[in-house]
Amino acid sequence: MxxxxxxxxxxxWHELPETFWQEIAQVHKVSRxxxxxxxxxxxxxxPTVTLLYGKHGWTEHIDNHVRYSFDVTRTMFSSGNITEKLxxxxxxxxxxxxxxxxxxxxxYTLPYLVHTKARHVHACEWNPDAVTAxxxxxxxxxxxxxxxxxxxxxxxxxxxxxxxxxNLGLLPTSRDGWSVACIALKPTxxxxxxHDSLNSKGQDRLLAEKNYTLQTISEIKQILADVKPxxxxxxxxxxxxxRVKSYAPHITHIVLxxxxxxxxxxxx
Length: 268
Fold this sequence. Notes:
Blueprint: E1 2-3, H1 11-14, H2 18-27, E2 33-36, E3 49-53, E4 58-63, E5 66-71, H3 82-89, E6 97-100, H4 109-115, E7 120-125, H5 128-140, E8 147-151, E9 165-168, H6 178-184, E10 189-199, H7 205-227, E11 232-248, E12 251-264
Parallel strand pairs: 1-2, 6-7, 6-9, 7-8, 9-10
Antiparallel strand pairs: 2-3, 4-5, 10-12, 11-12
Helix pairs in contact: 3-4, 6-7
């Protein structure tokens, strides 16, 4: 159980014996107690949690029959993305190869493996603590044999021409991964699920979404033309724009689903 960061601030609480916290844990039927601090801005969104009772911060969370394992003192768990995880779980990825460029503890990697019938998932993550949690999640869901984990910079993972579908689940924007994703797509094309933050301040939200979609299609088409060596014309179509959640005034976490198809140019 985690308490807000303002809890037990008085030095009085820190002088209490461990048996006091043990009794609190027993009342709430938990094995560990902690106080949540501020998130460290170190590139990993690492939490600061002070344990009041218990020897470690490892816990397990279950969403839609998917088991997530993580250390609350080392990694974040984003419960606000549950609607998107449920949506991903309904995809039909039968026999598809999926690339998750920002896997974290397995927010989307695990639903792809547990629910969508994906043949294999290539999961990239640069936070070592998140990688440890991801590997635990793969093991307890018994899907390790269908996932390859790449620790470090996803642009150096060597993923090229292998993916039917790519998840780009990074906020505030996944733009830095667009080229990596396009390189990873199979030569015939595939699906991109692009996460981003849409700022609609000063304009109609529907118009902002339309403009974002058109601009993103244009940029992805240009990137595909640049990174794919074969002479081809790319057709990029927007299938859906999902509003995941609002997390600031006029700012919405969105996911744009794109279908990219390669049409080889005929010889003259």
